[in-house]
Predict the structure.
Amino acid sequence: MFDVALSALGQVMTVGHLSFLVLGVMVGLIVGILPGLGGIAGMSILLPFLYGMEPTAALGMLIGMVAVIPTGDTFTSVMMGIPGSSASQATVLDGFPMAKRGEAARALSAAFTSSLLGGIIGAIVLSFAIVIARPLVLGFSSAELFMLTLFGLSMVAVLSGRSLTKGIAAAGLGLVIGAIGTAPATGEARMTLGIDYLYDGVPLVVVAMGLFAIPEIIDLLKRGTAISDSTPLGGGWTKGLRDVLSHPWLVARCASLGCVIGALPGLGGAVVDWIAYSHVVQTSRDRSQFGKGDVRGVIAPESANNACQGGALVPTLLFGVPGSGAMAVFLGGMVLLGIQPGVTMVETRLDLTYTIIWSLALANVVGAGLCVMLARYVARLTQVPFVLLAPFMLMIAMFAAFQAFRSMEDLVALIVMGVVGVYMRRFGWPRPALLIGFVLAAGAENYLYQAVQFYGNEWMLRPGVIIIALITVVSVFLGLRFGAGVSSEGDSDVTDQQTRGRQMAFAGLLIVVAAFCIYEAVGLSFLGMIFPLIIGILALAGAVGVAFRIRQGRVSEIHDDDATAAVEGRWSGRETYLAVFAALVALVWIIGFIPAMAVFFPTFLIVAGKTRPLLAAALTAGAVAFIWGITWAMTLRLPQGLILPLLQ
Amino acid sequence: MTTLFKPIRALMLCATAALPLSATAQDFAGETVEWTIPFGVGGGTDVWARFFAPQLSQTLPGNPTVIVLNVPGGGSITGANQFHARATDDGLSILGTSASTQYPAILGDPRVRYDYADWTAVLASPTGGVVYADPKYGVTGADGIDTLRAQEIRFASQGATALEMPVLLALKMLELNIRPVFGMESRGAGRLAFERGEAGIDFQTASAYLNSVVPLVESGKAVPLFSMGVVDADGNVSRDPSFPDVPTFVEFYEQAMGAPPEGQSFEAWKALMIAGYSLQKMIVLPKDVPEEVLAAYTDAAHKIVEAPDFRERAGEEIGVYDQLVGEEANTALQNALTVDEDIRTFLTDWLSEDYNVRF
């Protein structure tokens, strides 16, 4: 084993191999930084190079790309409060508040150091585990995977902030949104309202962008300053590095978590960061700063998500069953190169496997290094007046959402989710809880159904299931006891008591959605009905509970960011911005993406930002050229609009 | 990438300009062909398309750039619908289809807005597959059919109307007590369930079987029962060249039941096999493309599959099957999709009765 590993290392360290690896890393960083693009977009850039390439160099290039996506996406999460990819959702919770505080450099350097260490730990674990991991992967059946989704859902207890009731209701709503589409067991359409777009469910990127990007953009616009409201603190760099080095065990624990979660096909990278985040909250003594900019809240998910890629390679190489979305793409690349995954990867092609592992470790080093070099300059963006950045961020969010299904409905769904996100933020509902519910909905239903079909009622008696169940119970207990400090939605004050009617109305809206879910479920066959019925009842109970407690005037439930404005009978500006964004989507629908941006950018910059026309023109040209260039280079699509096809 | 090739392309054009060209010859020089693949990146159909895309670029006149556009969703219905609505008739829009595009069209799925009658196939790639069982039943072939019938056997499947449809029908014809577990994300996930011992019977298409199941067979963890065989346009079933030693479903059936399969269910099984396996993946164009465009594509497809090193480069993913090209592919396609009304009714009745599929 060791001699094979060493000879593979020799092969990886050649100039030819390294240059391809760096090329892959560059592409991986770009698609990581741009939200909504992941391994799939990276793959379409690299594929034309694959033909006629020497397989090991090609593998190095592909791995280079896949390995650093969770490194590059941190920029977006920390600097803009938008998840750069599904693996960095949790990084937003503490990374973005740090950037607002003027500590962007510290957050970034802590994140990159954690990514680097996590990635290397992932590669080390993989190199030993790959030879013995077969029984582990086979040992996790649908029953254990179902329990793991429940364990993931138990994170809501940690992330609910002051109000567990709101957390349960939000997670319930997330599950309901996640259940839209075709039932896995029967293929029945659920809650699609007859809209074809909803048959496949709402895409994750649309939900994440709507919940996080749109509310953050609007909030920053309302504040009217730069992202960071204070001058940057000196020495952020080394500070971030020292932060990580002073928590070695945290990095090791979260990286191990990442490896294990990654190695289980089906759970994937979208949950691993949340699990790591909850873990750090539960195991920390001082929890007062989580959600307000605690550096440990950056270290934990970032150590885990890079390690996750190492874990995800296990089922990909051993079984040909991808451990994550990016790995599905990597698998396709392998097949194109004529390399078939399977047992042979360990038995006869161990050299290739070790080439992949070395490339993974190296890519993490190169990727983190490049990010560190970039970060100095990127961190300065937090000092730029936000009104100049806002149209750019909105354009990126819309571009990202559109890449989901490449249909106009993606953008409509983005605005709808944006409205939900804005009001959740205003009334203090934990958005991470909704996201977790949404991410786990499909898995929870599918695995439960499969577990019952394969094992009958005995699935609950499997030792693995019992162990995970115990862990979940402990996790919920710890979460309830200590999670109350983590609030992602800010604090409330006295005025909030006066707008209870509005807060009730929003809870009422949730009650309607939950009731609709139950109503739709009842008309279906048993297998299609059971899951939406359960989660509908859960969401309903949560929402009704919140409504009651608001009526009673419980301080923990009462929250309204715009209370002062509402009491004075003013609009706070959120609705105005939402209307502007919706109008922009309508414009895109009519005249197409690029022309709409060419109109929106200067208008917004001159009217809202009061910029000089010349600067506005320059920014517009730059933005349009950038998005057009990305689209062209990656052979992506942008909305054409209704008019253009008529002219042709 | 394209900028890199432009000078090369210009040189090529200069070289070819000296040659006399016939007046109607199609030329795609400088154009981009958009190949819609209604599946995600990295899946079987995507890999198949990315194998053919550069070769199409090389063999089409004028060497257009061929880009693969993935439009996943609805088990390929979304992308095929989109192609149906937007495709241009100039040969710059082509579509790749698979069994899961063909089956809903045959069954009359309400979400289907495309019609194969509007399309012309220029290349079709067949595939085959093998049904294999857990050795715990102690059954090695058709003689053990009664032992198998005595068990309730689980089969992990993507869905009743997915790729496994003819497999489910074949197992029903053998009167086995199969309990399908639907909702698998891929055939690979189904194989994992089999390897865990959750499912007692499984099915894989040719390349996946050769790669992932043959090692299991060799180590005594799986027993092949029958291959689906190769079904020609007239409904004759012959042994699959990928697994010449494995009996076909028809042979297995005859040995198990004492008589060859016949009747409506067998006709339906053959129809599903022809539409989903004999022409599993196809390159189609809108029917209204000019004649010279179609000729250019037919010619390109011929050049690709008749190249001396095609077999060698095709590897296991394409397998050893003979690719159907041009008129041959198109005739087969039109035959495959004209399914008798009573066979369609038989299929929809069976699916609603056994699996509650609604039409």
